[in-house]
Structure formats: C-alpha cells, structure tokens
Amino acid sequence: MTDVMALPAPAVVPLDPGTGCIEARAFSFWYGEKQALFEIDLELPKRAVTAFIGPSGCGKSTFLRSINRMNETIPGTRKTGDILLDAEDIYDARTDVVGLRQRVGMVFQKWNPFPKSIYDNVAFGPRINGERHKATLDEIVERSLRRAALWDEVKDRMRESATGLSGGQQQRLCIARTLANDPEVILLDEPCSALDPIATQKIEELLVELKRELTIVIVTHNLQQAARVSDRTAFFFLGRLIEYAPTEQLFTSPQQERTEAYVTGRFG
Amino acid sequence: MTEPAIAPAESTSGRGPGGAGPASTSLGGSSTADRIYNGVITLFALCVPLLLLGLFFEVGAAGWPALKKFGVGFLFSSNWDPVREQFGVAPAIVGTLATSIVALIIATPLALGVAIYIAEFAPTWLRTPIAFLVDLLAAIPSVVYGLWGIFVLVPIMRSTVMPFLRDTLHLGATPFFAGPAYGPSVLTAGVILAIMALPYISSVSREVLLAVPRTQREAALALGATRWEAIQGAVLPYARTGIIGGIILGLGRALGETMAVTMVIGNRHDLSASLFAPGYSIASLIANEFTEASGDLHLSALMAAGFVLFVITLIVNAIARWLVWQMAGGQRSVA
After folding, report:
1. A95 lies within 8 A of chain B by CB
2. Domain count, chain B
C-alpha cells in the first residue's frame, strides 16, 4: 500500500476549460491511522453526471463524503489537500459547513426519511433555514416533489408518514428532500443498491433529468448503471484515482490495465 | 389436537382423507414434547397476571368494609380520625399526585439533558462513567434518600429555596407557593422523588437515543442542520416514544415511593393548595399507621387506601400507554 512508485500515474482525460465545478487538489484522507485516500487530483464537470466506480473499500464513498464534509462527523479523521467548489476552498476555515451542505446535498445508500409526514420530510431543509411562511413552504414542497418525479404518487397523502412509502418512493422522497434546499450539487452514495430494477430505472431517469440544472456525483457498484447515467467516470482502487475519462471512453478503451480488468469483470 | 389439524388440510388440499393425515400432523409439529413445553410456558406466562388479579381482589376485599361505609366520601373527605373512626383519603390522594407531578416536572428536563449529553455530546471516554454514576442513583436505598432529605434537603429548602421562590421570584402571590416555609412539605417530597426518578428516565432515554440510527443524524446534517438542529429535528422525534416510556417508568417509581416521602413530606392530613404545606401521600399514610392500626375499620381503611393507590397507578399507566400508542400510531399514519 505504501509502495506508491509501483502504481502508474492516473490516466486522466482533462475537462474542457471552464466546465469544471468541483476540483480536488492532492486530497488525502485518514480514518485514524488508516489512510483511505491518496493525493486525489480530480475535476468534476458542471451540470453533468460523474460516476465513481471501484471495488469495495477503494475510497470512492470516502471521497464523495469529503465533498460536503460529512466525513468530519466521524471522530478521528483528518485530511490534507483541498477541494474547491466553484473555485472556493470548502475546507477553508471561513467556510460555513451548514451552508456548504445546503449547496451540496446528499442522498444515502439506505433511504433515511424521518419518521414524519411526507410534507414535513421535504420541508425539513427549508424550515431549518428559517422558512416559516406556509404558502412558500407549500410551493417548495410541491416543486421539489415534482422535480423528484414523486408528486403524482403522493400529492393526496402529504400528511401520511413517509415510512409507509415503498423503498423506491422513499429514496425519491430523500432526493426531493435534498432538492428542497435548492442545491447546486447532489452527491448520491449507491442510491439504488437496495432497490429493484424498476425503482432503479425511475431514479436513473430522474438523474438524467436533473443534470440539466445540477451537478451530480454518483457512487455505484453497478457498472451498467455508471454506463447508463454518467457522462464521465472515475475509477478508484486502494484509495487512489486510477483512471478518469468520459464514460464511453473509459468503458470501451480503458488506458490502465486495472481499469480494464475491473470494467470487464475480471476482478472486483 | 390431531383432528383440527387434519380438517383444514383436507379441505384445502382436496386429497383423500387417508393421504392428508400424516403430512398435516408432522407439519403442525404437535408432538408430546411440544405440547408439554407449550403448556409449561403458558402456565408461567399466566402466573404474573394471575398474581396481579389476586392482589387486586385481595386488597379490594380487605378494604371493602371501609369503602362500603364511607362510599365516595372516602375519596373526597379530608377527615382522617382513627379515634372517631372517620376515614377520608383526599389529602393523601392529592399529595401522591402532587409530589409525583412536581417530581416529573423537575426530573424530566434534567434527565433528558443528561441523556442527550451522554448520547450526543460527551467524549467517548466520559460516557460510561457519567452513565454509571447516574444509574447509581437508582441503587441508593430510599431510606438513605430520606435521611439525606431530613438532614440536608429540608434545611436548604427552608432557608434558601422556599424563600427564594416565594419572595425573590414573587411566586408567593400564587396560592401554590404561599405560606410559611417549614421545610418538610409536598415540594420537598417532590424534589426527593425527582432525584429518585431521574436515573430511570435518564437511562431509558439514553438507550433510546443511542439506538437512533446514524443514518437519521446524517440525513439531518446533510440537509445543512447544525448539530443541535439535527438532535431536535431528527434524533428526538425518532426517540420520542421511547422517551415517553422512560418518563412513565419514572412516574411509576414516584407514585409508589414510600420511605423517602414519609420522611420529608410532613405527614399532615390536610388539604392545602400550597406546595409549601406539609402533606401526606397514600404510601406514607399506610407505612405510618399500619403497625398501629387497632380497630378493624382503621385497618380496612388503610387497605382501601392501598386499593385506591393501586387504581391510581393503573389509571396513570393506562393513560401513559394510550399516549405512547397515539404517538406510535402517529408515526405510522398521521404525523
């Protein structure tokens, strides 16, 4: 693991100038003594879907959770290097973490709606931001649910508990809840790994729809999913970025041997 | 046992009566050992409710003569005169409820504060010692609480707390904090009970808070909640039902507590609106008079008082169950 020299330099196809949104510069991360990320340099495009792939424990989720500083909630972690959002350092001492997490929303692997009504779930973000006006809240809730393609299914049961919805609906509710903050970026950590194919398909269609307005980053174990929804794909291995390229290029003509082995299913 | 097992098998399978028989007996699993096991377990399970019912009727029967003689007056009269054989427990009922309510009002915020601190804020190395010390409060014998109450709490209440409430905060203008500060009083008993109920509320709440899934906290934090907003908006609502359960447990402790209350409540059979006045609780009434009760009616009146305490506890628990059920139901259907 420490033998960095044995690994070839990452094969990166750079973005067109001016299309970037999030940029990591030599970003490393530790859980206690264990280093989880090694000097990641990566620029993610604006209003596009970027997929992170790689075997379990490769650091893709750690990197994702570094973009909204969620990893800080785990005791004993530290980092070096920078992550920039629209050219601003998100780890700057003056950065307001609460504001950052409103700009960079997150959807988790296991859907986690609050045990409250559907309405109260979506209104959670606006409410903690101080929005009290009923009509405004109503409007935000409806718009967010529409954007998450859930409105027609739940509009007559807004006061019912969110935990009564199906798994796929709950996950879309979590997306709607994130959208209610009007974020610029949405991070998704294996959002479909516990969903059936039809629910998965709905979420994938939703992501393609949402990328017109938002920057989307998705961690997935499902290579077909990465191929279907993403514009660019980053392959991680043992805490390092191995290859980063437009999705089609990465899947059809990978530059690194390891990438090829993974995308063709020879390991992982 | 075998006959009902065969019957449905025949009707659903539509096979011949001979063919369905053996298959359904083995599926039903009603071997002799299973039946014995079933019977023994059922017997054990029935023992507890039977014991409760037995107690209920036994105490009720022993108190029946007094209840019959005084009727509803037993509940509403404040005349307790063993010499003239006049018995009414209104002051003791009021004292029991008042001390318990005071206890909950003081203990609940403190216990929740402790639980939230331990579950959410305390560094890991500090969690166990604090939790251990708080839990230790439950292990102190109530007579020790009573002694501490007499020698430490009562003087402090008399010299500092009561004058502060009455004069400095001007609460003396309300009937609840009026009158002279003797020391032994309903309020003092409530404070003792608060300390005794605190570990119950706190340890249940703590466990419930620690059991809230990490994903709930992360969901709130990822939406831009501060740590406190995450606790208030996501963690506490999730744990609400369990916390209410802990409060009920504390209330049960407060309602039935005898020794410590007897030592600091003042033991005066009088109705007063003021929490500063000495009072009585049902449990302390029984404890004080049972050994000295001479007349049959006196004894019966004490039994009847015990029966009333029993019924109060049942009612309070029923209300509490209903509350929990409402909230749990609320999580499922209407939030």
Report:
1. no
2. 1
